[in-house]
Predict the structure of Large ribosomal subunit protein bL9.
Amino acid sequence: MKIILTNEVSGLGAAGDVVEVRDGYARNYLVPRGFAIRWTKGGEKDVEQIRRARKIREIATIEQANEVKGQLEGVKVRLTVRAGDQGRLFGSVTPADIADAIKAAGGPDVDKRRVELGAPIKSLGAHQVSVRLHADVAAKIDVEVAAA
């Protein structure tokens, strides 16, 4: 099935790319979650608009990405959340929470869609999170989750 990506999908492409994927992957995962729309001749017009919006948000060069990476890796990120007696969280820490915590800690403004969690953060303690800044550059950030 031919689709147009509306968000960056790791291993598949960036927003505005037209890609061919399996029908089930598109129907059951990409389209319902808003990562893609079905390709149509009318939808082809939307591709340019999506690409323009991506260029505005995107870090243009590898040098800029490395500069932002240096800023991110120097930031101490600490989140305070509600937790139970055994250290289990009520809910989980989301990429939006991490992006807000980076901003509050004095770091650069990071788009929540760029924050990649290996697994959901559902416990107290130190966790490592990746922030994809450019196709070739990713920053590793240590996030400390503490009880409120």
